[in-house]
Amino acid sequence: PQVEEKLMQQVMAESRVEEQPVQQVTVEPQVEERPVQQVVVEQVQKPISSTEVQEKAYVVNQRENDMRNVLQTPPTYAIPPLTLLSIPQQAALDNTEWLDEQKELLDTTFNNFHVGAHVINVSQGPAVTRFEVQPDPGVKVNKITNLSDDIKLSLAAKDIRIEAPIPGKSAIGIEVPNKESKPVFLREILRSPVFTKSESPLTVALGLDISGDPIVTDIRKMPHGLIAGATGSGKSVCINAILTSILYKAKPHEVKLMLIDPKMVELAPYNSVPHLVAPVITDVKAATAALKWAVEEMERRYELFAHAGARDLTRYNTIVSEREIPGETLPYIVIVIDELADLMMVAPGDVEEAICRIAQKARACGIHLLVATQRPSVDVITGLIKSNIPTRIAFTVSSQVDSRTIIDIGGAEKLLGRGDMLFLGNGTSKPVRVQGVYVSDDEIEKTVDHVKKQMKPNYLFKQEDLLAKTEQAESEDELFFDACQFVVEQGGASTSSVQRKFRIGYNRAARLIEEMESQGIISEGRGTKPRDVLISEDEFAAMQETNV
């Protein structure tokens, strides 16, 4: 029995030893199951990684958009150097003797007419000298202003202008033409600190004031301008100075230009400039369509602003550049019309409507309007246009009536011509007399050639496209059958009734009436009386079914 017990103990010990590897084998599958659990976890996390991929794709798209913006204006684009412009004349004219003589004549004139006043200061500008006259206590201002013709006679001057009083001074200004005038060169203004330190890409040079200080303005603050004056007074030179200033201040991705030139020659040198949204428009019908395009662009921009939560162009571009929303930065657009009278003769209703809509709403979205005309009459510069364009530049005109049409006060009829202007800025009540800068054709050609060599234009549309679109719109008017039905129901037809019913311009309503007459729906015109309807409602319904 003892031997059997020992054998049993040995067998039990061996069986325990043999069971240990079995236990290890059973543990190993549990260890091997961990990768399976990890695989399952990875399968669950796959949708999360797909969203990360989408976010990465969004960032890539944003970078592509940013690259597209960069490609619009390559980093190699450089502003033209001032060496392309003529060097201003440094020699100053010594007019001390002439100034003393004029000052003595003024004092003598006041004494002869028993007016208590005397000259206290003299400011000499490029073309005009201003004598500051201080009246004695108790002397009325109109006593001096009433002596205008007598002062002109005693000084033997071509013309004089009296500013009573000078804004910010207790003196009256008597402006007398210089014995010799000095031209103002664009380079002189562009290198001045007031121009170079301005951060706005729409800073433009105008000229020098009577004190000889440079006058620059920001088109963003204008925000729209009216330039008017007689033929040869300096309007086109002023427009060239404004456009050249923009080329020296802004890159193509910052400012775009739309140039409308019915004269065909004034703005032709700027063709193929990369700042243009289209080639220079010379056709009047295409110009009307281009203004309508500007209105549509204005509405599109305001939709983008509303979606982005921005109030103006600067804020919108900031949001886009900080990648808060997808999209591209928008440039400023400056529309220049060199002769408004030609447009108003062809399509006054459509042109006036487009100009007024742009002038009323387009400031915040970065679209600005500069309008020039040599006929400052009320049929060209209508009340609606003038009330929506706050900044005015008046060159010499033939009458005081024309001066009042432009700047609401007289004075422009006494200007000297050759760039002599009155600048009425936005928010100011009195104009400032400025001698405008002179830009030669050679300077314009050098500047434009420098800009053309760096970058080719990327036009959004061409004049031919606008003309084709206009002809198609004229031949197929979607309101034709509605207008016909209205006329048949009314039993009479007139342009004004169609205009009021469908809220359209006069030209479009007149075309609808002419089309009805050509198709035999209404009779010929009878002066002020409405036209007769020649078909019945049943005949019109049959005609409509036939056309459908």
Automatic annotation (TrEMBL):
Domain FtsK positions: 212-404
Alphabetical keyword list: ATP-binding, Cell cycle, Cell division, Chromosome partition, DNA-binding, Nucleotide-binding
Keyword Cell cycle: yes
Family per record: Belongs to the FtsK/SpoIIIE/SftA family.
Example of a GO biological process term: chromosome segregation
Gene Ontology MF term list: ATP binding; DNA binding
Protein name per Swiss-Prot or TrEMBL: Cell division protein FtsK
Pfam families cross-referenced by the UniProt entry: FtsK_alpha, FtsK_gamma, FtsK_SpoIIIE
Sequence positions that bind ATP: G229, A230, T231, G232, S233, G234, K235, S236
